[in-house]
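Here's what a typical entry looks like (Metallophosphoesterase):
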Amino acid sequence: MKLALITDLHANRDAVEAVMVHSVLQGAQRYAFLGDYVGYGPEPGWVVDFLIEHVRQGAIAVMGNHDSAVVKGPTPTMVPQAREVVEWTRNQLDDHQLTFLAGLPMSVRDEDRLYVHANAFAPDQWAYIVSRMEAIRSLHCTEARFTFCGHVHEPKLFHLTTTGKAGEFKPVPGVAIPLSPQRQWLAIPGSTGQPRDGNPAAAYAMFDTDTHALTFHRVPYDHEAAAAKVRAAGLPERLAERLVDGD
């Protein structure tokens, strides 16, 4: 089964639509959404409705920190821009959409795979996996062979051997990486809706559950048009600039 891994959509309809078209062409048979469907972007209602429909069709979806903030209130550590957009987003969503976000699980375990937004060691504390050290800590907290996370807006791949040796790969878009079932793996597909690695193209990954091959993808889309929507919504200018420069 080809499983599309999509995360950090951030209310960016243009990027989400581009990724969905690409994933269909790549043969996606199921979808796993790894959190942060809202926040930063101008079309939260559309993205939440999109997610509701895909979950109805059997997709996996977990809660992200921006989703949680919209229904529970922002955390003290949220930067001012994020807090501002949380309040704006809440006013864009109806009760049904807010109830759906509130009901999302923090993590989902499915066969040998764990899906979670931030990490496996404290999913509701939203700590980032920015280095091998955090990746190892997360892998030590689950027996799942493959962990798929969001939260970090850059594609990353870590592994842990049975002898405790850890390593990481720098993914190359479009190149399949065979994930040995003799190791534990933690993969971060990168952000669909707000990439931060200097490349504005939307990011996602495809995992073949039969061959255990993981392929990271980048999908160009009209990020200038998406940035214009951010400005038209009256959201902070920096959020529009991030879509243009991918940083």
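The first strand starts at residue 2 and ends at 6.

More examples are in the samples folder.
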